[in-house]
Amino acid sequence: MAKYFDVHPDDPQRRVIGNVAEMIRSGALVAYPTDSCYALGCKLGNREGLARIRTIRNLDDRHHFTLVCRDFAQLGQFVHVDNDVFRTLKAATPGRYTFILPATREVPRQLQHPKKKTVGVRIPDHTATQALLAELGEPLVSSTLLMPGEEEPMTQGWEIKDRLDHVLDAVLDSGDCGTAPTTVVDFSGGAPEIVRRGAGDTSRFE
Predict the structure, then answer these.
(1) Alpha helices in 58-136 (DSSP H)
(2) Which pLDDT value is given to residue 125?
(3) From which residue to which does the signal peptide run (predicted)?
(4) What's the rounded Cα separation, in Å, for the pair 16 and 6?
(5) CA 73 to each of CA 38, 69, 125, 154: distance values in angstroms, whole numbers, following the listed order
(6) What strands, in cross-sheet order, belong to the sheet with 97-102?
(7) Rounded distance, CA 180 to CA 164, Å?
(8) 28 with 194: CB under 8 angstroms?
(9) 37 phi, psi to nearest 5 deg
(10) Nearest Cα to 35, choosing from 177, 137, 143?
(11) In 30-49, which positions are buried (b, 16+ CB within 10 angstroms) versus exposed (e)?
(12) Which of 95, 105, 129, 199 is the most buried if burial means most Cβ atoms within 10 Å?
């Protein structure tokens, strides 16, 4: 049974955020809100957590997991970013974008695309997510909470708790965060390639 944590959207209770972070450190799989929609997240290196996300979402090994980072200092540990790409990313973050970039050695192999050796990264503009990342001190390995065969993700924490109670360890709820997933832009080939049009404005990459 998943534990349910409700926090204020603008001033999330530090004690609650601390409890969720401690669960993640101990191997928990959680559903949490972002500036685009809810996501599934676990600790970096949590192989069981990754397997559980794949099972819940029915994903194959070509799926790009995302490292949700607190800031650029953290993001730079896990992907290679040249100066031109850095300026473009800096102008678009924090925000509703996921960027696909070449992974560094800090990224576990099971997170990388099997052929391209890339990984998705993002810096969200969401108070509760940022509080959780600050408390955790490392990125969250994440995937959009979009169930197989469904076109839109679930938007309410209580709904997620009710439906996925048996497969999650915790649900962090700070209110409705929308249904549009991030816009995904692939920079692994140098020039930006829009892989998915979502919540983020794509005009700056076209």
Answers:
(1) 72-75, 83-92, 127-136
(2) 95
(3) none
(4) 8
(5) 24, 9, 16, 31
(6) 3-6, 170-173, 30-32, 39-43, 140-144, 66-68, 118-122, 97-102, 183-186, 193-196
(7) 20
(8) no
(9) -160, 180
(10) 177
(11) bbbbbbbbbbbbbbbebeeb
(12) 129
Q: Which residues pair with 173 in a beta bridge?
A: 6
Whole-model pTM: value is: 0.95
Residue 115: the pLDDT is 86
Strand 118-122 relative to strand 3-6: parallel, antiparallel, unpaired?
unpaired
Q: How far is residue 1's CA from residue 61's CA, in Å, rounded to a whole number?
A: 28
Q: CA-to-CA distance for 176 and 109, rounded, in angstroms? A: 34
**C-beta separation of 24 from 129 below 8 A:** no
Q: SS3 helix, strand, coil % of the chain, rounded to 5?
A: 30, 20, 50
pLDDT on residue 34: 95
Question: Going residue by residue through the chain (206 aa), what tens digit of pLDDT does each one get?
Answer: 999 999 999 999 999 999 999 999 999 999 999 999 999 999 999 999 999 999 999 998 778 889 999 999 999 999 999 988 999 999 999 999 999 999 999 999 888 888 889 999 999 999 999 999 999 999 999 999 999 999 888 888 999 999 999 999 999 999 888 788 899 999 998 889 999 999 999 998 98
Helix (H) or strand (E) holding 119: strand 118-122
**Residues forming beta bridges with residue 100, ordered by sequence position:** 120, 186
CA distance 77 to 107: 9
Q: Is 151 helix (H, G, I), strand (E, B) or coil?
A: coil
